[in-house]
Specification:
By secondary structure, the protein is an alpha+beta fold. It is built from 5 helices and 9 strands, in the order H-H-E-E-E-H-E-E-E-E-H-E-E-H.
């Protein structure tokens, strides 16, 4: 096993995402892209438990860069942000009107992270699925047969 600066440089890109101290109890926004394998267009970084939200004007190449740097994580790009989903996420389905289904193994802290980064939406958890409801759909109405 190597030691010294070479080993440190190689380990650095993946450590910030799940490293202790970066994922405290509340959302963190350092306002810079100083740590992590973040694309150069990153304007801000916000972390909650194992989930990371990057804000900026990103391209498909930026998404590919992150997917290469962190291959074990599910990463998606939307308008103005890239999300690195909780570590237990196996798959994500995006449906019409904004419904998002995450499948995998989730702990309470993962659910809290998704809720923190989607404050305007209802987020529910059942078995191996987290559902992020679009603001146009009220899950309570669905449970009551649409009434």
């Amino acid at each position: 096993m190597r030691s010294g600066p070479e080993q440190h440089r190689r380990a650095l890109p993946v450590a910030p995402i799940g490293a202790a101290g970066h994922d405290g109890p509340g959302p963190q926004d350092n306002g810079t892209a100083q740590r992590g394998p973040w694309p150069v267009r990153t304007e801000s970084v916000r972390r909650k438990n194992g989930m990371v939200e990057l804000r900026g004007t990103f391209t498909a190449a930026d998404l590919q860069q992150l997917q290469r740097a962190v291959p074990a994580r599910v990463i998606t790009r939307g308008i103005g942000r890239i999300l690195i989903w909780p570590p237990g996420t196996r798959s994500i389905e995006h449906h019409d009107r904004g419904l998002v289904l995450l499948r995998g193994y989730f702990e309470a802290s993962d659910l809290a992270a998704v809720r923190t980064l989607h404050p305007e939406q209802v987020v529910t958890h059942a078995a191996d699925q987290i559902t992020i409801w679009p603001t146009s759909i009220d899950p309570a109405r669905l449970e009551n047969g649409g009434k």
